[in-house]
Every structure is written in structure tokens, then in C-alpha cells.
Specification:
Helices cover 29% and strands 26% of the residues. The chain contains 9 helices and 10 strands. Helix 4 runs parallel beside helix 6, helix 5 packs parallel to helix 7 and helix 6 runs parallel beside helix 8. It starts with a strand and ends with a strand. 29% of the residues are buried. GO terms for molecular function: MAP-kinase scaffold activity.
Length: 248
């Protein structure tokens, strides 16, 4: 999700300004409807929705005009594919609380990827996490909630902070167990907060310690989502388009 889609209209589809175009993506369990932005008389732009599984969906270009029935202008197939970011998010979500797996992720720290790679990883994995269907009982600290804060262990929050993943840290903070993870020491005695300080991640440390700290700028300017039952509405500020997602 969140890629820019461009729609090229044929000559006969170029119509008056009062016609509104939108795309409808119909999957096996979820349907998305996106508004579009006119770039010029022959081109539209919108944002691809984040989908709940990898499949080929039907996408319809619809035209709406006040006082007239909705017209389906064209239909095409659109494929949601599984990429490395999706795999990484699924791996991390599954391994919350799994000490063997979380210790294994520490090898990434030793290789110290370049800042540009870290930023790319942060954006893609955090976005994939946002689109995962996490179980209702999912927790940042794993399935065993009987463990106390006094038991030293590695957490998903340690992983995100150690690599300086600002967006992923923000996402985890909003999940059950996210705030609780901040005071947990690992086997070296480090908490996620002390790791951020030790590594000089000022923005990250601010995010973890300031009460009411806002989400990272790169996200807050990108989109805002409101959930209500089986529906969610997302506003992409960059293109000023809206996306409605509903469980079919």
C-alpha cells in the first residue's frame, strides 16, 4: 500500500470538471474505495490501499456526477504481492516474546546498515506492520503476560530502538504492551530508553520519554487514519485523496 497509482484516461473518457472519478478494489474479504486527484484532463492520481493478503483483486474505475447513476468506466486486475518488508513484519510480529528469535535479530546491529537503508527499512516494515491483521490478543511483549518487568529479556522495542527505527517504534508504542516494554531491561541491563540515549538517537529518545510526543513528521504529513468497526477512512495529505476500506 501507499504507492502512487496513475490512471490514464482515453479520449472518450475525458469529461467535464463536475465528474468525480474513484477506484474500487474488490478483494476476497476486503473492499477499498479511493478518491482521485486530476493532474490534467487525461490523467488521475491516487494512492494504492494496503491490503490484508497477497492476491489478485478486481479494480474498477468509476465515474460519478450529481443527478446521474454511477458509471463503471473500466475494469482491470491489480495484484498485491508479498515483499521482503511484509515478510519481515510477519516474522517480527510472530516473534514477539520469542527470545531465541529476538536475539537472532541482533546480527543486523553488527552489520550497521547505512542510514539511507535504515530509513528505507523503517518506512517499509512499519507500513507493512500497519497493514498486518494482528490478532486481538497480540502484544508487543509476546503471549506470556505472566512475566514481570523484573525479568531481563529482549523485546521488539529493543530491536526497533537499537536500529533507530523511528516509525516502527512509534507504531509499537501504540500497541498493547508498547509502553510497558520501555522499562524492561535486557540481559545487558539496557532498556529501550537507555539504548536510544546511548546511541545518540535524539528524536527517538524524545519520542520515548516526552509525554504526549506526536508521531514522526514523516508520517503525520503522509496520512491520517480513522477506524470505526469494520470500516476505516484514511486521508493521504500529500495528494489530498481519501481511502475507505470495508470488510466485505
Amino acid at each position: 500500500g501507499d504507492s502512487v497509482i496513475t490512471v490514464q484516461l482515453t479520449e472518450e473518457d475525458k469529461v467535464e470538471d463536475d465528474v468525480v472519478f474513484y477506484l474500487v478494489f474488490t478483494g476476497s474479504t476486503v473492499q477499498h474505495c479511493t478518491s482521485t486527484r486530476k493532474i490534467n484532463p487525461g490523467s488521475l492520481e491516487t494512492i494504492s490501499p494496503g491490503h490484508d493478503c497477497c492476491e489478485t483483486v478486481k479494480v474498477a474505475l468509476c465515474a460519478s456526477r450529481e443527478g446521474h447513476p454511477v458509471l463503471v468506466v473500466a475494469e482491470e486486475s491489480f495484484q498485491f504481492v508479498q515483499d521482503e518488508a511484509y515478510d519481515a513484519a510477519q516474522f517480527l510480529a510472530t516473534c514477539a516474546g520469542n527470545q531465541q528469535a529476538l536475539n537472532f535479530t541482533r546480527f543486523l546491529d553488527r552489520s550497521r546498515p547505512p542510514a539511507a537503508d535504515v530509513d528505507f527499512l523503517d518506512e517499509k516494515v512499519a507500513l507493512a506492520f500497519r497493514h498486518l491483521k494482528l490478532p486481538a490478543e497480540w502484544n508487543v511483549l509476546g503471549a506470556d503476560q505472566s512475566l514481570t518487568e523484573n525479568i531481563p529479556r529482549e523485546t521488539l522495542m529493543h530491536f526497533a530502538v537499537r536500529l533507530g527505527l523511528l516509525r516502527l517504534t512509534w507504531f509499537l508504542l501504540q500497541q498493547p504492551g508498547g509502553r510497558g516494554a520501555l522499562s524492561i531491561h535486557n540481559n545487558e541491563g539496557a532498556t529501550p530508553v537507555s539504548l536510544a540515549l546511548e546511541r545518540g538517537y535524539q528524536k527517538l529518545h524524545q519520542l520515548l520519554t516526552e509525554e504526549g510526543a506526536g508521531e514522526p513528521d514523516s508520517w503525520s504529513t503522509l496520512s491520517h487514519t480513522v477506524h470505526s468497526g469494520d470500516y476505516s477512512v484514511k486521508h493521504h495529505r500529500g495528494l489530498d485523496v481519501y481511502l475507505l476500506t470495508a470488510e466485505a
